[in-house]
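Me: Here is a favour to ask of a fellow structure person. Could you put it straight underneath, so I can go through it closely?

Assistant:
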Amino acid sequence: MRIALIAHDQKKMSIIELAKKYEFKLAQHDLYATGTTGKVIMEHSQLTINRLNSGPLGGDQQIGGMISEQKLDLVIFLRDPLAAQPHEPDVNALIRLCDVYNIPLATNLGTAEVLLSSLELVAQVDAIY
C-alpha cells in the first residue's frame, strides 16, 4: 500500500509514537509524508519515507494531487483541532479529496490505530485468496 503520513506541529510527537509502534507494519509499505513530519519520523525510527514539501509550503496540496491521481491508498493526518492553521483551506481540500476518491483517512490516533491494525488483516485475506 501507499500510505501518507501528515501531522500538525502539535501532533508531531503523537505521529512519531504511532510510527514507532507500527514500524514493522509500516516498513512493508511505500510511505510518503509532508516534509517536517517525514523528517521527524525518520529521525526517530528506521522507516524510509518519501518526503514532500512541508504542509504550509504545498505539501498538503502535493498529497492531494497524489490522491487525485490515485497514487495513495491510505492517509493518516493527525490534525490539531484546537489550533487555527494558516493553510486550513489546503487541509480541507485534502480531506474532501479523500472523501471523493474513497481513500481511508485517519485524523486522530484512535482511527489511525484501527486502520494500521487492519493492514495485517488485509495481508492475511490477500494471502488466502
